[in-house]
Amino acid sequence: MNITYDYYRIFYFVAKYQSFTKAASILLSNEPNISRSIRNLEHEFGVSLFIRSNRGVTLTPEGEMLYSRIASAAVQIQDAEEELSASATLEHGTISISATETALNIYLSKKLRDFHTEYPGIRLRISNHSTPQAVQAVKNGEVDFAIVSTPAEIESGLKMVELKPFYEVLVGGRTFTALASQNLSLKELKNYPLISLSDTSMTRSFYRQFFLEHGAVLKPDTEAATTDQMLTLVKSELGIAFVPEPMAKELLERGELVQLHLQEIIPERSICLVYDRHRPLNTAARKFQQMLTKSAIGRPVSQ
What is the pLDDT of residue 32? Predict the structure, then answer.
């Protein structure tokens, strides 16, 4: 049998959504045709690509290997098709962005709103990732670019440009109001319950290094998955936490949180654009990237 691109395209969408029904809907086909194509592909390779169950399908190890090889190509081909069909006035197109929670909250959401207002026909695909995951998505060609918060490590071929600096503040709930009048040292924070992001996050790594540089050890009492969770836990009087100042600003102004003051200066962090300098972008993604870099402070962070 002659395996054409259509078979790989069908496999890609079934694997991506773990559903024959969803793939059929996206491809404007029907489930029997999708199932038949997958069976033909499995027969041709002599392996099972999916584990089928009542809850849907999952990839076998062989399926995982195939998906890892074709996912980037499938996304690039899809982008090429969309770019060719887009008009010069940007009435159509898709932008795929991987963003960290902090980047989305304090920078990207407003930029997306402005862009969408000007180009409402452009579809936006936003993935919520950690900084390492977002950078990896760019490297794999799964997204057009990433908007991340530092610290970040990138490999050769990728470029990172600073878009916006930001600072973090130490905050506590109302029960810490009396403490707000003091100047605390990092070493003294061991006397108070500390809330932090997970041990694998770049933010945790950032603060671990910050503490070490001042002869202190970072030992959180509570770990949270997101900054929003941290803020909720702080409001619930479960401890104190370092959070981006823009995300805490309204809560501080309303008196729901209090800012605690440190003797040590928390280093500046940045929101950065990460992209593959060798990968061409579609018209819409290129236009949005230009909008971001035009208003950026433009300091190259790393090559």
Answer: 92
3-class DSSP state for residue 138? Answer: helix
Phi, psi of 248 (to 5 degrees): -100, -10
Q: What is the pLDDT of residue 251?
A: 96
- 55: buried, middle or exposed (CB in 10 Å: 19+, 13-18, 0-12)? exposed
CB atoms within 10 A of CB 108: 21
**Which fold does the domain 5-84 belong to in CATH?**
Arc Repressor Mutant, subunit A (1.10.10)
pLDDT at 167: 95
Q: Name which CATH class applies to 86-164+270-302.
A: alpha beta
Mean pLDDT by 10 residues, the chain (303 residues): 83 91 91 93 92 89 92 83 65 89 95 94 92 94 95 90 96 95 95 95 95 96 95 96 96 96 96 93 90 72 45
**Domain 5-84 identical in fold to domain 168-267:** no
Residue 192 phi/psi, 5-degree rounding, is -130, 150
Instruction: Please name the amino acid found at residue 133.
Output: Q
Phi, psi of 122 (to 5 degrees): -85, 125
- Structurally, what CATH architecture does the domain formed by 168-267 represent? 3-Layer(aba) Sandwich (3.40)
Contact of 264 with 214, CB cutoff 8 Å: yes
Cα 20–chain centre separation: 27
